[in-house]
Structures are given as structure tokens and as C-alpha cells.
Amino acid sequence: xxxxxxxxxxxxxxxxxxxxxxxxxxxxxxxxxxxxxxxxxxxxxxxxxxxxxxxxxxxxxxxxxxxxxxxxxxxxxxxxxxxxxxxxxxxxxxxxxxxxxxxxxxxxxxxxxxxxxxxxxxxxxxxxxxxxxxxxxxxxxxxxxxxxxxxxxxxxxxxxxxxxxxxxxxxxxxxxxxxxxxxxxxxxxxxxxxxxxxxxxxxxxxxxxxxxxxxxx
Length: 217
Prior knowledge:
The chain is of the alpha+beta class. The protein has helices at residues 4-8, 13-22, 67-75, 165-172, 201-209, and strands at residues 31-34, 37-44, 50-52, 77-79, 90-94, 97-103, 109-116, 119-124, 132-134, 141-142, 149-152, 160-163, 175-176, 187-190, 193-196.
């Protein structure tokens, strides 16, 4: 059975994006705040696709698709600690370019699972097997208020990644709810194994890195 909240959040993304598009953030793509330093501004949607922030149309035709560029860009994403443009909580530093990033939720969105050398890997950034993370079945976490599903990411990204809606729906088939006092799934069945889910890592990580997770439904 599909968990309904895993489906519900898909319909919420349009209004959330519209809210940000209507906000006025003053910048010019390629601006030079100091000599030989250029700044650009990007947006990552709930599916993990990368766009120029000021693109009027944000869909598959306007997102970045070149895998080597995406690998280069995503590997350099960090929390934005520059003190500039706090509306953009992440940044990708590429030489003398500062690439500020805002997101629908988080910059790392896991899109699919692949196998390599008998290991299950989560892909992100639409760069194929160039960007992967080890799948940890016991760390899957569903946020009850939104139905969104999360999985650990590297610390440099803030330690948490969003699971793409299509993949989240597939994974939700393997959720088990064994405790009435907990709204999140308590167990996860994966490849003949049943894992007791860690209920603490998610809150501990977002607190540690002061992440702003989307919490509205």
C-alpha cells in the first residue's frame, strides 16, 4: 500500500515555487562584487533539477543536463557561510565564481537506486553514476507533516538529502508501521531483510547544521 502523504507533497510544489518567484531578490547574474569575483544564482527543484534562478520556465527543457558540468557543480556544493545572500542557503564555489543556490527543499535529491559491485547506491544530481551515495536502508525517514522521505547525505551538503517523489513512492511500499505512537514508519523491508528505522538521525542532523526543512503540507 502506498502511504498517502508520499503522494500528497507532489501537488504542493507548484505553490511553493510560485511563492519564491514572487519574492524580490536583488542580483544580476554574473555580477562582480569585487575584482575578478563573479556571482551566479541557481535553483534546485524538488526533483533535483538545476536551473538558473531567474529562469522564467523551470522544467526539463530549461534545466542543466550536461553530466560533467553537473558533477563539477554538485561536488562543490557547501552550506553558504559567506554572509551574502542568506536567501540562498547553499553555495557551489567554482574557482573565482560563487554560485549561490536556493532549493525547494534541499540541494541533494536522490533520484534512483543503482547497483555497483553488489552495493546499492543512490544517484543524485542527474549525473548518472558520477554522483552516488551508499544506500542505508535503516536510515530512511519520512516526515509525517509532509510525507516527504529523506536519506543521509554527505556532511558537506548538510547531512540530509531528499528522496525524489517517484522513488519515495516506490520505497513507501516497503514501509512498516509497528508503533501507534509514532507516525513515521518504524521498519523497512529491503531485499529479504527487515530494518528497524533510526528515528533520531534526521532531527539530530538538521539541528546540527541548522537546516531549514520544508515542513508545510
